[in-house]
Write the structure tokens for this entry.
Amino acid sequence: MTALTLSTAGAATLRADALVVGVAKGAKGPVVAPGAEAVDKAFDGKLATVLETLGASGAEGEVTKLPAPAGLKVPVVIAVGLGSVPEKDAAFDAEALRRAAGSAARALAGSKKAGFALPVASVEDAEAVAEGALLGAYAFTAYQGGENKLAAKDKSNGNGPKSPLAEVALLGAKPRDKAFKAAAERAVAVAEEINRARDLINTPPNDLYPESFAAVATAAGKEHGIKVQVLDEKALVKGGFGGLLGVGQGSTHGPRLVKLAYTHPKAEKTLALVGKGITYDSGGISLKPAGHNETMKCDMSGAAAVFATVVAAARLGLQVNVTGWLALAENMPSGNATRPGDVLRMYSGKTVEVLNTDAEGRLVLADALTRACEENPDAIVDVATLTGAMVLALGHRTFGIMANDDAFRTSIHEIAEEVGEASWPMPLPADLRKGMDSPTADIANMGERMGGGLVAGLFLKEFVGEGIAWAHLDIAGPAFHEGAPYGYTPKGGTGSAVRTLVKLAERTAAGDLG
């Protein structure tokens, strides 16, 4: 993990491998951002001119490396674009700082220490820079760099993966100020748990399956004082969890329902989180076509987000009870697999006709939602890579929010936007419910094709207890990034929704639950 320190050194006196400064896009060319005054002085006040000569404009995500001049203790200066210059008297947007820090940290892979002298006008700015740098430094290298027994033993060619930036030294903060210290501690806790979620999402499905995921959760519970309960196949059969059992019965790796309970002695509210944890989704008997299977290790991103959020809440000592439910199963085709046309009796007692075994996430979530509602939480949020329809609707960077309470949906949307996670409120049109009517069971797991993401939300709503505020986050788009890295977003698992859920837990602790 990348370390974070609040440095007492100035930009001119810091000893490190590199120094990161900000540059903004002005009307007449690049503009050096606050925090880089000492660096600009070392360039005789011509840093912006040098950058423009090299083709830099200050555009968001742009990274320009420069040899450091005399007067600095670092060998390299990295100028990172912040986007347009803010309007008069306005500060840089927190998300712009977060993304810039992430781009710089990624460019510094292989370095031991780098100073970040980006604009820090407030505690919030400091936290954004810290969070962005820690997230941007992330790399998943667990399966790389192995010894090639057929190759020469000389490993000096440097072709292996670079290690993430080892230390981020944040300049411009106030190391002895309690607010800045707290912001740094929060940034570390949240970023490390997001990166833990990313690791889980990126882990190959031959190593991450329901039982091994449950073991990871159990170990984390012991480390952070979280009570963990794991229901295996026998317990699921005894409890009547037909959705989880139906989805998982085709695999040699049996399903699990994992409960993680973080409690605070002074908590007055309880927030329940439910995560879809399909550790691999082949589609089951309704097999996915070629080209759609390769990334299906990411279908447990919702469970990873819930797990990370509960651990982050415990690390931060939030004055709220947070209960996470991980609905874990592997969806595989076999002679034991659920068939299209089968009817499952869910934990709630309702029967579901399975018309498509690739609409499996809603089945495991339904069981977990019913079980979570039995504990009568003040609010419940489920998180899932649920539908391709949501990706078609909102693209790859925005998740959809549905809810049975408009105010609660609005609160979550506002929180997501505040923490820098793109989201959009979606409706639950009552007319789409009729498409799930079944002549055989209480409800079918499929409805109209058009509006499929909303249909899935309506299905889940059927399994939420009355009087409980509920929201559904469909993170199918942003949970797994297949393109080139950008900002603090890596290729692969992203940890989508963790920041939103952590902030929701903080708001709930403060009595500000919408």
